[in-house]
Every structure is written in structure tokens, then in C-alpha cells.
Amino acid sequence: MFTVELSELELFHGGYENDPTMQVKVDFPFSAATGAKNTAVVYFEIEPGHRLGTHTDSAEEILLLLGGEAEVSVGDERARVSAGAMALVPAMVPHSLRNVGDETVRVVGFFSSSTVMSTFDEPIVPMGEPPSEAPFGQRTILTPFPVALEQPPAPMAGG
Q1: Which residues does 132 contact at the CB level (< 8 Å), separation at least 6?
Q2: Rounded to an integer, what distance in angstroms lies between the CA atom of residue 71 and that of residue 121?
Q3: How far apart are alpha carbons 83 and 53 in whole angstroms?
Q4: Measuring CA to CA, which residue among 44, 39, 46 is closest to residue 6?
Q5: Which of 21, 22, 48, 141 gives 20 to 30 Å between its CA and that of 123?
Q6: DSSP readout, the chain?
Q7: Which of 29, 10, 9, 24 is nearest to 124 (CA)?
Q8: Residue 133 pLDDT exceeds 80
Q9: What is the rounded average pLDDT of the residues 50-61?
Q10: pLDDT by residue (tens digit) across 57-86?
Q11: CB 58 within 8 A of CB 34
Q12: Exposure string (b/e) for 93-124, b if CB count within 10 Å is 16 or more?
């Protein structure tokens, strides 16, 4: 059995170069890289005054807020949520989260695929001391790390 302790994850610190409010700490503890066949899990943290930038994901995602208070935007809808709340994010629908409270927002996202392509509205750049294999300077990131792409991969032959 493969298990993960959230408090022991080595989180990638990323953000937008020209927007100091977009800063997030993130890791994908479960994905194709860890042997998952059909799902992936992302864990991320957002400090007070910061946000996760608007992006789309290639797979449906269920967000579970573990701590803090956030404003979640999914498409044209916006809601304020706190610990224990969940939100459904359809594949390819723009979404973002903003910490609107005084404590760290902690979120687990469950994806319906073991690989996920996330495309942000600006390139992601390193903040602080991230793991060296994390992708930098890209708008599109393919999970599992360390693959980063500017364009989607070409379709596979016969698929």
C-alpha cells in the first residue's frame, strides 16, 4: 500500500512573476508517477492574501477544503467556502481559489485521470526554494512533474 502524510510533502512553491498575490505551494502525491491508473491527487496550500491563478485542467476535479477560508471561482460561479466544503470543477472549465481568511488554506483535489494537463493564464515561476525538478516558466504543466509543456502533446497514433 502506498500512503502519504500531507505534512511531510515537499511542496513546490510557484507563482506569477508580475503578480505577487498569485503564490501557491503544491505537490501531486498520487498520479501516474506513483502507480495510480485512473486518478491523481493534488495537495496545495495558499497563504492569507494570496491566490491560485485561473487555470483549466484536462480532467474533472473535486476540491476538498481541509482548512482556512477561500473564495472559489468555477466558470462564472463564485462561492465562499471553509473547511469541510467540497466543489466540483468540470474538465476544461477555468477556475481559481483565493484565500479570504486569516489562516492557510489547505486543499486536496481529486482528479478523474492519473495524468493532468493544467494551463494557467500566465507562466508559473519559482518562489522561494522549490524542488529542482519542478517546471518553471511555463503556462501549461503536465502532471506528474517534472514534465512541462507550452503546447499539448501530439495525439498518439492509432488513438
Answers
A1: none
A2: 18
A3: 20
A4: 44
A5: 48
A6: -----GGG---EEEEETTEEEEEEEEEEEESGGGT-SS-EEEEEEE-TT-EEEEEEESS-EEEEEEESEEEEEETTEEEEEETT-EEEE-TT--EEEEE-SSS-EEEEEEESSSSEEEEEEEEEEE-SS--TTS--SEEEEEESTT-EESSPPPPPTT-
A7: 24
A8: no
A9: 98
A10: 999 999 999 999 999 999 999 999 999 999
A11: no
A12: bbbbbbbbbeeebbbbbbbebbbbbbbbeebb
C-alpha cell at 96: 481559481
**Cell triple for 107:** 486543499
Percent of the chain with pLDDT over 90: 73
Enter the C-alpha cell of residue 52. 491560485
